[in-house]
Automatic annotation (TrEMBL):
A GO molecular-function descriptor: ATP binding
Name this polypeptide is given: Branched-chain amino acid ABC transporter ATP-binding protein/permease
Location (main, coarse): membrane
Subcellular location: Cell membrane
Source superkingdom: Bacteria
Chain ranges of the ABC transporter domain: 8-253
Residues of the full protein shown: 339 to 591 of 593
Keyword annotations: ATP-binding, Cell membrane, Membrane, Nucleotide-binding, Transmembrane, Transmembrane helix, Transport
Length: 253
C-alpha cells in the first residue's frame, strides 16, 4: 500500500459489556506508513478498541475494514494472517526461552494461541526458516547482541522491543502496540521511539495505544483521543493537545 492510503478503517465501532459501553461508535483510520496514537485516560476504551480490530472482542455494532475488506467474523488468527500484528498491554514474553525462540514463536504464530505446540512439532526445515526469519527481525530492531540470552534476563525496555520483534516476525503491514512505553525509563522510551520511527520509514503502519501523552506527542502523525469510550478529539498532535475536551479529560476537570 502506498504511504497515506488507509490500511485499517474503524467505522462506528461499538462494544458494550452489558450496560457498559466501552467503545461508543468510534471511527478513525490507520494509513500506511503512518503512526496513529490512540490515547485517553484509564478505562477510556483503548485496549477494547484494539481487541475489536484484532478480533479478540466482537463488535456490538459498526465495522472494521482492512484494505477495504470488512474483518467482521474473522478469527484473531485470520486477522493476523491478513497482516495485522499486535503486542499486549501485559507482556506475553516467555522468560525461560531465549530472545530468538520468543521471536520465532511470532514467525510461526502470526498472533494467535497454539503456537507453542506448532513450534515444537514443526518440521526441522520449517524450524530453520522460522529461526532465520526471527534472527532477521532481531537485527532489524537492534537487539542482535541479545539473540541467545534468556528473555527473562533482559531489561524491561529490551523486553518491549523483543515483543515488537515477535510481532514483526509475522511480516505485518500494520502493527498495533498497547502501551509499549509503560514503565520504561526515559532512555528506554527514547530508544523505543527511534525504533518506531524507523519502522514507519520502512512503510509499516502503527497504531499506538498510550496512556502517556508526552511519549506520543513527538512521535505520532495523527492522534485519536478517547474518553469514556467516546472519540472526543482527533487530528495533528499539536492541535489536539489544545482541545478543551482533551485538556479537561486529562486534568479531570
Ligand atoms: P483502556 O485500555 O483505555 O484503559 P479498556 O478498553 O481496557 O480501557 O476498558 C474500557 C472499559 O471497558 C472499562 O470500563 C473496563 O472496565 C471495561 N471492560 C474492558 N474489558 C471488559 C470485559 N471483558 N468485560 C467487562 N468490562 C470490560
Ligand atoms: Mg488498556
Amino acid at each position: 500500500a502506498s504511504p497515506g492510503s488507509p490500511l485499517i478503517k474503524v467505522e462506528k465501532a461499538r462494544k458494550a459489556f452489558g450496560g457498559l459501553v466501552a467503545v461508543n461508535d468510534v471511527s478513525f483510520e490507520v494509513p500506511a506508513g503512518r503512526i496513529v496514537g490512540l490515547i485517553g485516560p484509564n478505562g477510556a476504551g483503548k485496549s477494547t478498541t484494539f481487541n475489536l480490530i484484532t478480533g479478540i472482542a466482537s463488535l456490538t455494532s459498526g465495522s472494521v475494514y482492512y484494505q477495504g475488506e470488512p474483518l467482521t467474523g474473522d478469527s484473531p488468527r485470520q486477522i493476523a494472517r491478513h497482516g495485522i500484528a499486535r503486542t499486549f498491554q501485559h507482556a506475553k514474553i516467555l522468560p525461560e526461552m531465549t530472545v530468538l525462540e520468543n521471536v520465532a514463536l511470532g514467525a510461526h504464530l502470526r498472533g494467535s494461541a497454539g503456537v507453542f505446540k506448532s513450534l515444537l512439532h514443526a518440521e526441522r526445515a520449517e524450524e530453520a526458516t522460522l529461526l532465520t526469519e526471527a534472527a532477521r527481525q532481531i537485527e532489524r530492531v537492534g537487539l542482535g547482541g541479545y539473540r541467545d540470552r534468556l528473555a527473562g534476563d533482559l531489561a524491561l525496555g529490551q523486553i518491549r522491543i523483543v515483543e515488537i520483534a515477535r510481532a514483526l516476525a509475522a511480516d505485518p503491514a500494520v502493527l498495533l502496540l498497547d502501551e509499549p512505553a509503560a514503565g520504561l525509563r526515559h532512555g528506554e522510551k527514547q530508544e523505543l521511539s527511534n525504533l518506531l520511527k524507523k519502522l514507519r520509514e520502512e512503510g509499516v503502519a502503527i497504531l499506538l495505544v498510550e496512556h502517556d501523552m508526552g511519549f506520543v506527542m513527538g512521535l505520532v502523525d495523527h492522534l485519536v483521543v478517547l474518553d469514556f469510550g467516546t472519540l472526543i478529539a482527533e487530528g495533528k498532535p499539536a492541535d489536539v493537545r489544545q482541545h478543551p475536551a482533551v485538556v479537561a479529560a486529562y486534568l479531570g476537570t
